[in-house]
Amino acid sequence: MGVVLVISDYANIVSSRPEAEIFISLHKKGLNLLLMVPEQSPWIPRFKEEGVPLEIYRPGGRKDPQEIAHIRRVIEKENVSLMILFNNRAVVNGIRAAKNHPVKVVVYRGTVGNVYWYDPTSYLKVLHPRVDYLLCLQEGVQAHLDKQMVFVKKKTFLMRKGHKPEWYDHVEAKKRSSFGVPDDSFLLSYVGNVRRFKGVKYLLKATHRLAEKNNIHLMLIGNGFDSEPFVSMIKKSPMSDRIHVLGYQKDALSYVASADVSVLPSLRTEALTKAVQEAMHLGICPVITDIAGNQGLVEDGKSGRVVPIKDSDALAQAIIDCYDDKQKTKRMGEEARTHIRRWLTHERACEMMERFIKAVN
Question: Is the pTM for the entire model greater than 0.85?
């Protein structure tokens, strides 16, 4: 078995943690790994501390000749037999670096959609003839990709990214008074940068019904809420004075831990959304939409609430139900923590990745 080359960005300590910890654990188990990591990655000290072999480089852009040549040199020098590509730049450059070389190429896919058999651009990345295998974060992702195998045939494998409970042991809830929220309020949190697929406009529409409960507050954590149409939607909401735009927060988990409910009104593409997983690990009741990528993450009425996409009335009603029965909401939060720690573990994620590598390498 040759070297397994993993190319990813590892640009953020928290968001990269589930993936990075998988390869630290697999290294400890003796797998022959080499991680190709950008020089600015904050994970480099930890990887070095754990003895994980690294190839530190200065990243370019997509189709960057120097980066492509660098990857090719690493493949040849290190006797790489399997290359796993985790982000778009790595996919584009890694595929080109593997041209006319026997290395097996694996592309990781963590979202549903945006890859279609009839779309020519899909054959430049995920469906590229040079790609041998596809790793899928969740069953919905895998099912979608399997349907696209019309002109090419690639085997798909399931590979989740689990969390360790101890990652959340140190998180202390932020005092609500520190960001202008009354201690006795019913607090909702939304975490995520504003993108169309996040469905934020349906959450803001839902506030028109939520306003009838004069003790509900909503905090919005992430970038983009200072742009249109969101500025206008917040101003027009009858509970605008109870919507707290906090922007990007480095310690976002502390804010989430102070909430009663975590809301994510996604429309499509996402899978096993990390923000929902984090809230569940903190024991916060999740209210999410029924997108394919989050199937199984929340059990409706037991470990949270699941509502139809693009339905602000259903979203508002689920939140009102949580407000009207706060004890049940608290129980759902506790059950959410139990469910996520049983259903999606770091150990299981490591087993899935190890089994995949040994099966194809």
Answer: yes
